[in-house]
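Bug #77: duplicate submission created two jobs. Keeping one. Sequence:
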Amino acid sequence: MRPAKLIVTASLALAAFVVSGQAMAAPRCVNTGDFNRWLAEFKQDALTKGISQKTLAAASPDMYFEESVIKRDSGQGVFQLTFLQFSNRLLGGKRIPNGIAKIQEHRALFARIEKTYGVPAEVITAVWGLESDYGALFGKFKILPALTTLAYDCRRGDKFREELIDALKIIQRGDKTVDQMTGNWAGEFGGMQFTPSNYIKYGVDFDGDGHRDLVNSIPDTLASAANYLHSIGWRRGEPWLQEVKVPEQMPWQEADLDTQHPRSQWIAWGVRAAHGSLPNDKTPASLILPMGRKGPAFLAYQNFHVFTDWNSSFVYATTVAYFATRLGGAPPVSEDGAKDIKPITTEQMMELQRQLQKRGFDVGEVDGRLGAGTRKAVRTVQERYGMPADSWPTVELIARLENDKSPGAVAPMAKQNEPETQSEARPVPRPVAKPPVTAAPEAAPRPAPTRAAVTPPAPAQQPLPPAPSHKITVRVWTVQGCLTLRMSPEKAREYRRC
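Kept job's structure:
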């Protein structure tokens, strides 16, 4: 499984404004080990991993403990920003016109990159714009003290230990000097805010000077981003996101990133293009509703998943994908229904997560953030209460959960009942040291998303009963349709096409 890119990279793009809302500091472990002893042991380990004494000697003055990094890591807040709040702030001002100007300025370079990796200019530029404001905001933290501190720290030490090793490799091979290693407090740097490990894996020398420079070389920076996107699944010539209009009534439970239907099926349910046309064909797409059925609506295609692999935050991924459509000429998203949407507070979101956890849902940490696990749980509970299942949490839903006196265990049994062959991990490609002469081979296609959820057994007006122990009903959605499985303790199965 490929690790998700750290969400903190967005902080550079967000530096121009202050986000309103109450933040909760994450629970913190306590460092009790001796730092100097740890550092000596780390240096010995680095030597066994190919880092030379010369490199360690050059880096050692910057390998110290930086308390401010721990404070920043401890102070990361969770803010409830809707898609429109987030995207309007990040894409306001001159970011869109500046992006269009960058595409024009580097037109020949972008054409060469697209020929090699298949990723269009507007996608690369959108990432570039949000990660570093087109290279204007690299960050001013010294990378080595930041990574040394986080590698020693008790919270995520193992992860950052490897990042520190890779940072030393970058110095050792001559791509950057110690003094040139500046960026984000979490160790990301350059125009695309790559971690050192991603710099090693995906950085390319596209200007042919013998070094991979993702700070000062625009060709290296842009081509490396394209190499990364291509390597994690970008499909040449295919769309990624399209704004649509949805009807007043439709099977809202089908609106989910992990559920795909042919465009013809979405049209049959009343979905229409917001601008231009929506072909009535078999191209698979997911309907995503970042703010529920009353807010903006999009059809997300296979390439959209690459944005969520780049950054696991759903709001961030949707924003950068939408940004890319704007750079390609799409009009602003409709905000007609947004005035009627009242987001719940962070405290209410945490209460919702606690209620969902009581019912057996895996929503991750109770952190007040509307993540993928919380959205899926919300949709399932909405279905079982007879509410429009658009995955958008409301005060009404929280009240229904709090007033339910017999909640039982209602979490879906999807994990133990999913087919074993549902998906296969793609191998991580080898790093590319220089641009290939011929076009890069297309990445392996991503397995078609599926969704599994327990079929609601109770009427909408009744409280949620305990899950029956004698029989389980599971519905699995595929591109072709859905399949209902009824499984008894004796593992007898009856199959019925939906």
